[in-house]
Amino acid sequence: MNPRNVLVVFYSRSGTTRVLADLVAAALDADVEELRDVRERKGALGWLRSSYEATTGRRGAIEPQRRDPAHYDLVVVGTPVWVSHVSSPVRTWLETNASRLPPVALFCTMGGRGGDRVIAEMSALIGKAPRATLVATNDEVWRGQMGTQVAAIMRAIEQSAPTRPPPAMQVQQQAHAH
User: Fold this and answer.
1) What Cα–Cα distance (Å) separates residue 78 from each residue in 116, 175, 177, 178?
2) The pairing of beta strand 31-34 with beta strand 6-10
3) What is the value of pTM for the model shown?
4) Do 9 and 93 contact (CB within 8 A), yes or no?
5) Minimal CA–CA distance to 59: which of 97, 21, 32, 22?
C-alpha cells in the first residue's frame, strides 16, 4: 500500500475478528485499536447480553480509546456478526466517531450468515459508503484461508484512494487558488 496513515479498529468477543484484524493491519502496515468492553461477555450470559444488545440496536459500554480516527487517512473497522447485526461495542464506536471518520473500509466475521447486512448497517451508522469491504466466515479465518481476501481488500482500498499530488504541488495549487 502507498505510504498512508491507516488505523484498524475492531472488537472481538471470541478472538476470530482479532485474527482477521491482525492480518489486515499487517497487510496495510496499520496502527491497531482494539475496542474493549466494560461489561463481561463470556459464557452463556455474555452471549445472551450480546445478542440482546445487537438485535435491539443498543450501544455497549467501551473503554476510552487511545487513538483519534480523525488523525488517519483511512480507518478500517471490523466487527463480529451478532444475530445478523453489528456488535454493540462497534456500534458505540461508530456512532461516537461517525462525524470524525476519514474514508473507511469495513470487515466482519460470521458463523454462517448476516455479513452483508452488517456491512450495510455499519455504512448506515457512519453515513457513507466504504472504500472496500470484507466478509469472512469464522471457518475461513481459523483455517488460514484469508490471504486472497486480504489481498483483495488491499487492492480495493488502493484503487479507490484518490490520487494526491506531492506536497509541493499542493502548496502551489493552493497559492494559485487565492
Assistant:
1) 13, 40, 39, 41
2) parallel
3) 0.82
4) yes
5) 97
